[in-house]
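Below is how a single chain appears once it has passed through the pipeline. First comes the sequence as given, then the structure the pipeline wrote out for it. We keep one example in the README because the format questions we get most often are answered faster by looking than by reading.
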Amino acid sequence: MDIKKFLRGALNKPEPCDKVSYFGLRGRISGYILTKAQQNIPTCGYNYEADITKLWEEFNKLKDNCDYHLSFNTLMMRVLVEGLKAAPRLNSHINYNCTSSCGTFIEKKHIDVAMPIILDNGETFPIKVRNTEEKTLKELAIQIDELLEKLENTDVNRVLFDVITQRTVGLMLSGAVVPTVAQTVTGYVGKHKVAKLKGLLESSPRDDKHLLMEDLNEGSVCFTNWGMLYNGLSGNVTYTPLLYPQTFLMAMGCVRDREYAFRNEKGEVDIGVKKEVPITLMFDHRIGGFNDVMPFIKRLDEIFQNPEEIKEW
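Resulting structure:
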């Protein structure tokens, strides 16, 4: 028996020919958030295919005539905000202690939308679009463009370093001594250390021309568009984890044409084509039940069926 091979298999170690890489700052932060979410949040999901035929027509009219850059992604974020105004309980954070079964439910005053974006190295990380409930559609579009412009001027690793420093301090203040020490030590020492941590605290300016730590925090709710990654995406997003401590997430896929059967004016069965987008809603079941999500869905249906209102946004 090859003892080394036996022990490697027992410890689930990689083969010598395997390529091994270690988490950087983004991987450490998102790994912590998503693992904590998976361990602590009783998640429930709802998938539906929304008929946006009328909304798509109104969107294209508005896009062609407005004096600012308007994307369908921005419009759908505004749709999300309208849904949250109808269902404010979804715009919340939950802190819960499994040991004592005590918890706090925090309904957030502002709708701060975490929107995942693709970094230059191909990784994704959410930036926060703040106070969206106060913005017109034009102001929201301009705000998103400004955030993306700031991103180009920002050393993302420096901002992520600020975020992970804040999280480590939070662990320490909450009494989690062992995780605090472990995360601090492994950040600087050993094979899991993060390269070039030294100097990040002082490097790169912190001003209104660059992204700040507050722009990369979780926000109050998450909106993600998987369809932007590949416009030929034909499937539906069936599950995606929440960003702890958020309680709600909306994900959408590609806008696509879908054939459907209907009865024409003569009462005969006919075939038509409609615009459709798959939407996935994930929520923390501790906020209540599906009845808390229904006002959100009903508000979206109102917008999709009568989209003329977007001209007043």
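The longest strand covers residues 269-284.

See the next section for the split statistics.
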